[in-house]
Design a protein that fits this description.
single chain, 222 residues, mainly alpha, 86% helix, elongated
Length: 222
């Protein structure tokens, strides 16, 4: 089972890095959203500093949504998913490997690039650090919850739109508490409680999402 997990993880990472344009698209979209929102609000430094964590989190959420349809679609189209369904190994292990690969190629780059946007918003070092930690803890939720929506809409027309409608309400808790971590650091308060809540959401999604997504994949294939 562990061998299958690492095999699928390595395979998905290789495929992702071969399609570098998809990875660049996610980062470019993240950068555009983070850049355009301040342009629309104005150049007031105090306002920008206060909204920066929320802006970065909204941009991360939208970037994750952009990349979700590719999580299972190629395997569904070429028949690989069908072979995964008939394997003797538990399907949630397969889903977990694919979700982890998705997070590595989306969540980690977004977290790394958020440090640059902390400089752009002229944030203090502790605020930038809190924002980065909250993204590192919380972006797995975007991939795990998104895997459920993607599996439920697999093979449907306008599946990407339906996925967004399904998962956006479920993203609200991690969006709120993730952005509040940076806000707490800006107000000279401890962001640790928000880190714990975001980490708890990640652990809960880790426990539940692979099972739910695996069940949805079986439904989509049948």
């Amino acid at each position: 089972m562990l061998k299958l997990f690492f095999l699928i993880l390595r395979r998905d990472l290789r495929l992702a890095f071969r399609r570098r344009s998809d990875l660049a698209q996610v980062i470019f979209f993240f950068a555009v959203v983070v850049t355009l929102i301040p342009l629309g609000i104005g150049a007031e430094t105090d306002i920008l500093r206060r909204i920066a964590p929320g802006v970065v989190w909204v941009a991360a959420l939208l970037s994750a949504l952009l990349s979700l349809p590719r999580m299972f679609q190629s395997d569904y189209e070429d028949g690989t998913l069908e072979q995964m369904l008939v394997t003797s190994e538990p399907l949630p292990v397969v889903v977990l490997a694919k979700v982890l690969a998705h997070w590595i190629v989306t969540g980690i780059p977004i977290t790394v690039f958020s440090a640059a946007f902390g400089l752009m918003f002229d944030l203090d070092l502790d605020v930038t650090g809190a924002m980065i930690v909250s993204l590192l803890l919380g972006t797995p939720v975007l991939s795990f919850v998104g895997s459920i929506g993607t599996a439920l809409t697999l093979g449907l027309r306008a599946g990407g739109v339906l996925t967004s409608l399904l998962v956006l309400p479920l993203y609200i808790p991690v969006l709120i508490f993730g952005s509040l971590a940076g806000r707490a650091a800006a107000d000279a308060l401890s962001p640790t409680p928000y880190f714990m809540i975001v980490g708890g959401l990640t652990l809960m999604s880790l426990a539940l999402a692979p099972v739910a997504a695996a069940a949805a994949l079986r439904i989509a294939e049948n």
